[in-house]
Design a protein that fits this description.
There is one protein chain. The protein is mainly β. The chain has helices spanning about 1-15, 125-135, 160-165, 180-185; strands at about 45-60, 65-85, 90-105, 110-115, 140-145, 150-155, 200-210, 215-230, 235-250, 255-270, 275-290, 295-310. It has one domain: Lipovitellin-phosvitin complex, beta-sheet shell regions (Roll), CATH 2.30.230. About 15% of the residues lie in helices and about 50% in strands. Strands 1, 2, 3, 4, 5, 6, 7, 8, 9, 10, 11 and 12 form a 12-stranded antiparallel β-sheet that branches. The longest helix has 16 residues, at about 1-15.
Length: about 325
């Protein structure tokens, strides 16, 4: 089952990438409507809370089922530096992480809160991951953000980047990897349509999420602007529908079949302030991996929530 084990690792990484909620493409223009645009003020700080719950069920052929659950909550803030017409300089600062991992069919679990726990009890691996999560707090990850929500030039501090690339860094919580840190930015930045947007405006975006050793997970997203809220006309609610497909790696000996899927969500964008106010996503995938005549069926379900906090950043 060596090949199936590789497929399992690839799918676990894909679960984290389900969190790529707010990617979008070119929109349609409607006369008389205003475009949605990011408008970050220089010197301002914006604080968000991201919650994510992931459930992974794996059933290898001839073996017992494996069930794992991961929950994490991240308090972070954007610190806005220079804001030009074409982009704003932003630093993302993580203030607190709460991570819970539970497994059935595999040894080990993990619970850690960077605000209250000094070190994770148990095995050395958990202690190393706890130290890594502690190191994330206070780190400044910088990027540039265009008015349409294009994220450019993401940069991690050298020390943090080196720590996240260590072989023993991954495993507990999707932020315990460089890819996970970059995705924290992706899920909090909706990419907005090119033209004006109002009730019924639709746009699409395709995103490819790598699945190491086996191929890529393709996400085709359709966005629909429901228009301004009646009680708060500056806020636009946008629905998000996701369809998934698989793109095998050429020459891979692991076959993949997508058996079930669902993907839906929404985000609220404050057009007056020029920022995302909240968002949610629920995705589910069932994939069958086959190698050397044996199969592993995996179901990954993810729920994500994002909220702009009213209280000032610390």
């Amino acid at each position: 089952m060596k090949r199936a084990a590789l497929a399992t690792a690839g799918t676990t990484r894909a679960v984290a990438l389900i969190g790529v909620l707010f990617a979008a493409g070119a929109g349609t223009a409607d006369d008389g409507l205003e475009p949605l645009r990011w408008k970050l003020d220089p010197g301002r700080e914006y604080r968000y809370t991201l919650s994510q719950a992931t459930v992974l069920d794996s059933t290898p052929e001839g073996g017992g089922p494996i069930h794992s659950e991961r929950r994490q909550e991240v308090d972070f803030r954007w610190v806005v530096g220079e804001a030009r017409e074409d982009c704003a300089e932003v630093a993302l600062v993580v203030d607190r992480l709460r991570v819970h991992v539970a497994r059935e069919g595999l040894p080990g679990g993990f619970d850690f809160d960077t605000a209250t726990d000094d070190a994770a009890p148990g095995d050395p691996h958990s202690a190393r991951v706890a130290a890594l999560l502690k190191g994330l707090v206070g780190s400044r990850i910088t990027f540039r953000l265009t008015p349409r929500g294009e994220v450019r030039d993401v940069r991690l501090p050298d020390e943090l980047s080196a720590a996240l690339r260590r072989p023993d860094a991954s495993g507990e919580g999707v932020l315990a990897s460089e890819e996970g840190v970059r995705n924290l930015i992706a899920v909090s930045v909706p990419f907005l349509p090119e033209g004006p947007s109002g009730p019924g405006t639709m746009w699409t975006r395709q995103v490819a999420a790598p699945m190491p050793t086996v191929g890529s997970l393709i996400l085709d997203k359709t966005y629909t602007d429901r228009g301004p809220r009646a009680d708060r006309p500056q806020v636009h609610d946008v629905d998000v529908e996701t369809r998934f497909s698989l793109q095998p790696m050429p020459g891979s000996t692991v076959a993949m079949k997508l058996e079930k899927q669902s993907g839906a969500g929404s985000f609220a964008f404050d057009a007056r302030r020029g920022l995302v106010e909240s968002g949610r996503l629920e995705d589910s995938l069932t994939i069958r991996f086959t190698a050397d005549g044996r199969s592993v069926v995996q179901t990954a379900s993810a729920k994500l929530g994002l909220k702009l906090e009213a209280r000032p950043a610390p």
